[in-house]
Amino acid sequence: MYRLAQISVNIIDQCVAQGVPFAREYGGLLANRSFGGAQVSRTFYARGQTGQQLLLGAYQALEKEIAKGGVSMFPRSEMLDLIVVNGRARGIVVRDEVSGTIEPHLADAVVLATGGYGNVFYLSTNAKGCNATAIWRAHKRGAAFANPCYTQIHPTCIPVAGEYQSKLTLMSESLRNDGRVWVPKRREDVGKKPGDIPESDRDYYLERKYPSYGNLSPRDIASRAAKEACDDGRGVGPGGRGVYLDFADAIKRLGEDEIRERYGNLFEMYQRITDENPYAVPMRIYPAVHYTMGGLWVDYNLMSTIPGLHVAGEANFSDHGANRLGASALMQGLADGYFVLPYTIGDYLATARPEPLAPDASEVKAAVADVAARTARLLGVKGRRSVASFHRELGRIMWEHCGMARDAAGLTQALELIPSLREEFWQDVSIPGSGEELNQTLEHAGRVADFLELGELMCRDALHREESCGGHFRTEHQTPDGEALRNDEEFTYVAAWEYAGEGQPAILNKEPLVFENVKLAQRSYK
Length: 526
What we know:
The protein is α+β, with helices and mostly antiparallel strands. Helices cover 38% and strands 15% of the residues. It has 3 domains: 2-152 and 290-352, FAD/NAD(P)-binding domain (3-Layer(bba) Sandwich); 154-289, Flavocytochrome C3, Chain A, domain 1 (Alpha-Beta Complex), CATH 3.90.700.10; 362-512, Methane Monooxygenase Hydroxylase, Chain G, domain 1, CATH 1.20.58.
């Protein structure tokens, strides 16, 4: 974290040079604003689409390097295995998603920057193509997987609209700067229009419970508070799974033009999705899976337990601990890619001095054969049940038993349900078509097969961690007023899980967390 803070200012300069249009004050200086978990305005932003603009800036810089010939890009290729030779990462095996060709790419070092595993829950704010296959296959080749149970639930998402919805939409956390979160105080008012509920009958529960931070309480706290209100029968919208995010006071105070200037693109997106005008009626929001703090274990040089395999951004576990605060996800990825890996990979290559590797080496051929065999096994099931139905059922299990709130009974049940579902998957999954063509069902099946294994590890990690900490909230471990209760005496460590083989329980390795300059203390946002 110290290094990340040191180089974070360089990220802003780098991105500005790449064309990212950060917001600026009238005099030309960079503007900033508050985000969840902070009482001061310290977050640089690009209106309500900071993440998208950062991605566009990075993409443009990459495309420039591709055009110059400095980078070779292989589009529509999916990594399906890691090549390990003499204990070191020496390349990857990919499948061409158009032709189905399976081939190796050899290298002196490998970098995985493949994002997180939030889609194990089926419904998340992640793009549908996001998956855990790259890091999971690396894990099965020997890379330790750290803290898989730590999942961030974002409180500001558009609620689920129906049973067969396949993705959730994130509304920027910046909305909570001016929007006020509330639900009716009385259950009998839930069916009323929000404008018909008088101010005295509204429960602005974040302002009530956390007066110091109010609507800008951290994401995990705001998410659990929304769940508590809905579980109490006071949720709004279809199924009672929503709370109001109301801008009436801000519009009255600042004027509609100012709110339109700040959040116009977000309001337009919300109206297009819900057909409701957020300038006239409150938005409806509900928590959704957004980010995963766990990932492959890495050292200070971002190298995993497999020498030569480096892991960047959300794919590793390193910077965010148990609870990522707002505005920091892309900061980590950009810091790793632009300011850390260029130095640490050079150090690895200088000290390891990899030997030349032939494409027909036995380890390379074995890795390619493993991928081909797994692909053939998937295609050979020829069952009757769709891949999406398995994914949806896994997501329900994960959300109910390893979501915002967990307990031993639910996690134990999940550890019975997931292996059973995995067994059914390998006996009855339906994958039409062949492996020698564009086959998106085959791609999805491979990813769901990995999610079915990863989900079990997440539940196992959550069950063993007998405390509440950040994004991991065990209902048995909370303070009398419902806040997270840590157990620093027994669980001040990174849980780095080691793959033990097919059908064998993962092996837990503990990396102690030693705090020399910061004293551990219980969080309070009251």
